[in-house]
Specification:
335 residues, alpha/beta, Rossmann fold, 2 domains, 7-stranded parallel beta sheet, 11 helices
Length: 335
Amino acid sequence: MEIFVVDDSAFMRKVVTDLLEKMPNVKVSNVARNGKQALTLLENEQPDVVLLDVEMPILNGLETLKKIKEKYDTPVIMLSALTNKEVTIEALNLGAADFVEKPTNIKEIQDEWIRDFYRKIKNVARTNKRLSISHEPMTLPKKTGETQLPSKVRAVVIGASTGGPKSLIKIIQDLKAPLNVPIFIVQHMPKGFTTSFAQRMNEESSVEVKEAENDELILNKVYLCPGDYHMTIINGRIILNQEEKVHGTRPAVDYLFKTAAKVYGNGLVAFILTGMGKDGAAGMAQVERFGGYNIAQDKETSVVFGMPKHAIESGVVHEILTLEAIGDKLKQMVR
């Protein structure tokens, strides 16, 4: 797995390169100090992943990303500081596969951060290789006693990880106000970045999108779970907590889906979108148990077909749809 590192800081290039070289089956193929140099070097490179700094002189991260996406299929992961969160959200919307938050204290990089860094690189690189191979579309396991889409939808829950921000913006911006049900979203994203992401979705849509607050009365809006919190629904209110991470993440999709299933029963529709790992499968099992309806994004339109795949293989998904079809379905059920 070959990684191309682009960062204007020689110190950060060294830190990132050293970390990568210690990871199994990872090699740093080259480094560049700015976007212009990166584009020149990429003419003779074929890395599996480009790690791209957000803020750089000469040609910044966003402009470099646009040019890379125009010319190459190589996936790009952004290297971002918390101060660059708005630009990072824009990069994800422009096609970056994911982002890694730069460690604030280089001397005390946590093992968890390194594991997450490696997991993101591995999954994005693996997905890019799979895209070049033809696959039969994934089909649903045969189910007994077919569950029908609720005639009266009471709430919608959505879970996403890698590739989720761009997908979520696409489906949320097409919704028309007013909503007749609440929509709850868990997107795997660190604290601070979810605030900017909620603001971005709100700007792009005619419906109200906000970062959820603890003990908030539930209205017919779109609620995004804040980073580093789990989101639950109790007595018509949103309750946030910092209980243990699930699947190594907080917020967790499973946490939301399980509580929503108990509250909304057969009036709940759950969507699992692109993302790595298996978060959401157990939650969808609970949704099905309480009579709700589960929809998974298909392989072809997923950036990483991990979370949808696990849910489908668990036998709890009732429908597999393209991202465009998910947007159409969502519009129909919430208006």
